[in-house]
Specification:
CATH architecture of the largest domain in chain B: 3-Layer(aba) Sandwich
Number of domains of chain A: 1
Strand order of the largest sheet of chain B: 2-1-3-5-9
Largest sheet of chain A: 4 strands, parallel
Largest sheet of chain B: 5 strands, parallel
Helix content of chain B: 25-40%
Order of helices and strands of chain A: EHEHEHEHHH
Number of domains of chain B: 3
Helix content of chain A: 40-55%
CATH topology of chain A: Rossmann fold
CATH class of chain A: Alpha Beta
Oligomer: heterodimer
CATH topology of the largest domain in chain B: Rossmann fold
Radius of gyration of chain B: 22 Å
CATH superfamily of the largest domain in chain B: NADH:ubiquinone oxidoreductase-like, 20kDa subunit
Number of strands of chain A: 4
Number of strands of chain B: 9
Radius of gyration of chain A: 17 Å
Strand content of chain B: 5-15%
Order of helices and strands of chain B: EHHEHEEHEHHHEEEEHHHHHH
Largest interface: A-B, 36 and 50 residues
Shape of chain A: globular
Chain lengths: 156, 331
């Protein structure tokens, strides 16, 4: 990889707060880097850890999970569930050798467009400093994700 | 068809412990039905047939092959390809062939480390530090052994698989039920299930089959079962702070372990609709931790030693990520 590494970040946002914060950031013309691809969930509590694992498998370098501030969840307390899941997921990723800092949980209310933009910018820079993860490319080199026919051609 | 008109049956073990073969023999008198209806042409643990006998067969000559074990080396993969070609129906039998099982946990370590453990532990007499070499020069020529793969792969990561029978090992009553179906199909009384079906497994989770009582589950700490002073014989093990993977595991075993007081380890694989076993289990665990405070949650999670080994004990090779980062060769 050259010094121009552009990290690919998948961002999960909550319909009721952080997605609107991102919306507001756009309306108010706060800038944040285009490295992040935002996906809207109804709630951070909807975040199945599978989504994060799939993001890494498909080539993401980092995953940002955003939700309502503690105590402000539209579904009462599901953001606490997200907190517990993310803390556990980070431990699992760590024990699989994947830097847990590639996952970050951020609280942002619908009014915090500026704050969300700053958090996105700082996370993108942090992941840039960690360098590319490249799960599919590096794993592909060992024939691990290749289609069956391709595996046949991988030298023993 | 063989000379006596019976369809041909084969069973093979790749990287496995042999428990699956024993499980098949453990179906008691049902094994006589297998013998009465099939010609056993290849089954290293039970009959004396050679690889060359299989190679000499026509493609598709074997009707049914039960394949257990993961793809740990080139010989395993070679046999998978060979038996795929020679079999009309190839079944991934048991946890190793389905999802890597315990041998799949080696995907967390680089090959050198695996060899270090296997050939240099205190109990190993290997003063010369010998390691397996794919090729060795001797006076008569070059000797070769199958190359060790960088990671363990499951059967369907190497060849096309028709059906899946999970379990470590599959339970005898489930095997017997599958044999009954196959015999009914042979007799023209039933249709084969759709390709890719899971056979010999329930549609629900182990929790559903477990007789322990579940209350409102709130966990304030995790403990290993051997560290508990006493275990309530009636109450859900997860509720007692023991990591039991029943919520993510497919039913079919009749919840043998939790009923006997041991936590479910997940050997029957992910329940229907679960893509990643560990992720489902993480969701379940996160839901029952009784705290909303990050520091307190972390303290509770400290009780979970070895997260990858606990959440992917049987499933790592078939999980979404499939390996740990350490096994990336040279990357």
């Amino acid at each position: 990889m050259s010094g121009e590494f552009e990290p690919l970040i998948i961002g999960f946002t909550c319909n009721w707060c952080s997605y609107r914060a991102a919306d507001m950031a756009g309306t108010a013309r706060f800038k944040y880097p285009p490295n992040i691809r935002l996906l809207r969930l109804m709630c951070s509590g909807r975040l199945d850890p599978t989504f994060v694992l799939k993001a890494f498998r498909e080539g993401a370098d980092g995953v940002l999970i955003t939700g309502c501030h503690p105590g402000e969840c539209h579904y009462i307390e599901q953001n606490y569930k997200a907190l517990r899941r993310v803390l556990l997921l980070k431990r699992l990723l760590g024990s699989m050798g994947l830097n847990p800092e590639r996952v970050k949980l951020v609280w942002a209310s619908a009014a915090e467009g500026g704050r969300l933009a700053r958090e996105i910018s700082s996370f993108v820079e942090h992941v840039r400093a960690l360098g590319p993860l490249g799960w599919p490319q590096r794993a592909m080199a060992n024939g691990r994700y290749a289609a069956r026919e391709e595996i046949e051609e991988v030298p023993a | 068809m063989s000379e006596n008109g019976k369809p041909k049956f084969a069973m093979y073990w790749a990287a496995s412990c042999g428990g699956c073969d024993i499980a098949v023999l453990n179906i008691h008198e049902k094994i006589l039905d297998v013998d009465a209806n099939f010609e056993v042409v290849f089954w290293p643990v039970a009959v004396d047939a050679k690889y060359k006998d299989v190679e000499a067969m026509a493609d598709g000559e074997i009707l049914l092959t039960l394949f257990n074990g993961g793809m740990r080396n080139e010989e395993n993969a070679h046999m998978a390809r060979l038996l795929r070609r020679k079999s009309q129906i190839l079944i991934a039998f048991g946890s190793c062939a389905n999802e890597g099982c315990i041998p799949g946990l080696a995907n967390l370590s680089p090959v050198e480390e695996i060899f270090e453990t296997a050939y240099a532990t205190v109990s190993t007499e290997n003063a010369a530090g010998i390691r397996p070499q794919p090729e060795t020069q001797v006076a008569e020529g070059v000797l070769s052994i199958p190359a060790f793969s960088p990671v363990l792969r499951t059967l369907n990561q190497v060849v096309d698989v028709d059906y899946y029978i999970p379990g470590c090992p599959p339970e005898s009553h489930q095997i017997a039920a599958v044999i009954d179906v196959v015999l009914a199909v042979l007799a023209g009384k039933a249709q084969l299930p759709p390709k890719g079906s899971m056979l010999g497994v329930g549609q629900s989770t182990v929790c559903d089959e477990c007789t322990r009582v579940r209350n409102v589950r709130k966990i304030t700490g995790f403990r290993r079962i051997q560290d508990l002073e006493c275990i309530d014989p009636q109450v859900c093990l997860l509720e007692q702070g023991v990591l039991c993977t029943g919520p993510a595991t497919a039913s079919g075993c009749t919840a043998l372990c939790p009923k006997a007081g041991a936590p479910c380890a997940g050997c029957y694989g992910p329940a229907q609709g679960v893509l990643d076993f560990g992720a489902r289990m993480m969701s379940a665990v996160a839901s029952v931790i009784d705290s909303n405070d990050a520091e307190e949650i972390d303290r509770i999670l400290d009780g979970l030693v070895d997260p990858a080994g606990s959440f992917y004990r049987f499933n790592l090779a078939h999980s979404v990520l499939r390996t740990g980062r350490a096994s990336w060769n040279g990357n």
